[in-house]
Amino acid sequence: MKLTNRSLVILVALEGAFVMAFELLVGNLLRNIYGSSLLVWTPVIGVTMSSLMFGYLLGSHLSSKENLEKWIFRLLISGMTFSVFTVPIHHLLWSLLPAQNLYFESLLNALLLLAPTIIVLGAIPTLVSVLLSRDSRNLGYWTGLAFSNSSIAGVFSILFAGFFLISHFGTETSFYILIFASLLVLTVIFKKYRLIGLVFILTCFSLALNVMYLSKSDLNIMHSEDSLLGRLEVVDIGTKNAEGRKEIHRSFNINNIPQSIIIKGRRPSFSVYKHVHLISSLTTLKENSDILLIGLAGGAMVSELHRHGHQLTVVDIDKRMKRVASDFFYTPSFEFVEDDGRHYVNRTKKKFDIVIIDVSAAETQPFHLYTIEAFNQIESILSDDGMLIINYVGTLNYDQAATSMFKTLKQSNFKNVNICSTDPNISNDNLFVASKSEINWNELSPSKQNACCLAFYDIGQLIEQEIILEHFKESEYYSIFRDDLPILDHYRKFISHENRLFALKEGKKNLK
Q1: CA gap 151, 145 in Å, rounded
Q2: Is residue 184 within 8 Å of 285, Cβ to Cβ?
Q3: Which of left, alpha, beta for 257 (phi over 0: left; psi -120 to 50: alpha)?
Q4: What pLDDT does residue 312 have?
Q5: What pLDDT shows up at residue 203?
Q6: What is the pLDDT of residues 316-373, one digit of tens each?
Q7: For residue 248, which phi and psi values (nearest 5 degrees)?
Q8: Is residue 291 a contact partner of residue 396, using CB atoms and an 8 Å limit?
Q9: Residue 320: which residues within 8 A CB-CB, separation 6 or more?
Q10: Cα(119)–Cα(478) distance, rounded to whole angstroms?
Q11: What is d(CA 485, CA 36) in angstroms, rounded to the nearest whole number?
Q12: Using omega within 30 degrees of 0 as the cis cutoff, is the peptide bond preceding 424 cis?
């Protein structure tokens, strides 16, 4: 079996395209479980580069063998066979691993899912360069051609997978599309129908296993879709309320972390998250305000602010949010801008009475919204008595991130900075409130609250309990958040780790 130079160029391009798309898809699989932080992408990139190194070494070892065309075919078939079972192995590991050490489990997943496929496929460019130079002494030229073709194909493949395949078909289905397309190319070039047909059958078997696995979940998944911004799911969960009556909660999840939870069937939507009602109650200080809300999620905040008669501009980087909020969370109509929150603040010419930052990427919070430069820019788009409300996901007392955010706000152009907290020791209902002028907290009154918010908070009673603080028990270690010092994730690594562990353990409860 002697392959033409054209076939060899196609094969090395196939290898590059497959490896890069495969790396992205595996990273997306792990992100849906372990989040989108460096916890996932560090092992994914590290294992990919290490596997390619071992693949190049394997190629150099095989380059002295006879009949290299046969070896190339064997390597391609081996790589495809390993990749066929990526999704089932991923689900098996998710079921078996105890969700105790996320660093180890993320690395183990990356090793088992990526290494076998990439090592064997990584040997192919070396063998192809040897075959391309068989009738020429210019080995360097052909080696450069082989590796450059592999790299160029990889670039186009990763763009196609990221911007089209994942968003249209989902991560897991994209694996099978990638494998079936690659098998088709191998069939045309090698015409080894029996062996390639066997891999095709194994792929169908793997696909069937995946369908069976998904059917085992107790969750009623109403909607699910993938993109480069993460897996978005709408899930209905049966539960009981305080009176012991059955009710259904509808949860909006990003990468398995709940972002919004409402009581299904209540229109307009009724959030079960207390901070939504607390923020909404604070906005009654400025009635009929123009509000900029950064972060949409399921739209529960929109519904609460709409009840109070405010005019809303909602900014979110993920355009899917508006469709899901409208279709599944009974959100009233509002002005939506698809943009990064910081970018919108930098370019807008509008003035707002209130800016609310209630945004997270699963368990992490985007640091660039919390730097002194960002706070100063937000202050510049507020009206003369405007205020900024930040929902901080974490504890306050002795917390480095909370202390740093408080100190950063204090050093910004805002005149007053307060904390609104029902309990600084717990990881919820902690708000930073920064304003351009003195706030008269006595103007907060239950008479201005809607019935929905009153069901959670009587703001008058909370004021009496002194939930508005000027100080808390600060950490002695802190930093002023700046654009060139992205240290927020480092300070929040413990709470982010705990939130992810909790989500994993809750997810495992829904496996039979």
Answers
A1: 10
A2: no
A3: beta
A4: 92
A5: 85
A6: 988 888 888 888 887 888 899 999 999 999 999 999 999 999 987 766 788 899 999 9
A7: -110, 125
A8: no
A9: 225, 227, 229, 232
A10: 44
A11: 20
A12: no
**Rounded to an integer, what distance in angstroms lies between the CA atom of residue 418 and that of residue 388?**
10
Any bridge partners for residue 389, and if so which?
356, 433
- What CA–CA distance (Å, rounded) separates 27 from 35? 10
Question: What is the spatial distance between Cα 132 and Cα 291, in angstroms, rounded to a whole number?
Answer: 64
What Cα–Cα distance (Å) separates residue 151 from each residue in 17, 60, 156, 502?
8, 19, 9, 40
Residue 16: closest CA among 85, 118, 87, 114: 118
pTM for this prediction? 0.79
Element (H, E) at 386: strand 382-392
Pick the CATH number of 273-508 from 3.40.50.150, 3.30.1300.10, 2.60.40.10, 3.40.630.10: 3.40.50.150
* pLDDT confidence of residue 111: 96
| DSSP notation for 465-506 | TT-EES-----S-----BTTB--HHHHTHHHHHHHHHHHHHH
Helix (H/G/I), strand (E/B), else coil: 233: strand
Task: Tell me if 207 sits within 8 A of 91, measured CB to CB.
Answer: no
Out of 3.40.50.800, 3.30.360.10, 1.20.1250.20, 2.170.130.10, select the CATH number for domain 5-214: 1.20.1250.20
Helix (H) or strand (E) holding 451: helix 451-454
Residue found by looking up tokens 């066929």 in the block: 84
Helices (H), 255-396: 274-282, 300-307, 320-328, 341-347, 372-380
Nearest Cα to 43, choosing from 114, 110, 112? Answer: 110
Domain with CATH 3.40.50.150 in the chain: 273-508
Domain with CATH 1.20.1250.20 in the chain: 5-214
Cα separation of 4 and 251, whole Å?
A: 56
Residue segments in the chain with a per-residue pLDDT below the cut of 50: 512
- pLDDT recorded at residue 328: 87
- Which residues sit opposite 469 in a β-bridge? 419
- Which of these, 360, 386, 368, lies nearest to 439 by C-alpha position? 386
Cα–Cα distance for residue pair 445/433, rounded to 1 Å: 18
- Among 14, 25, 20, smallest CA distance to 181 is for 14
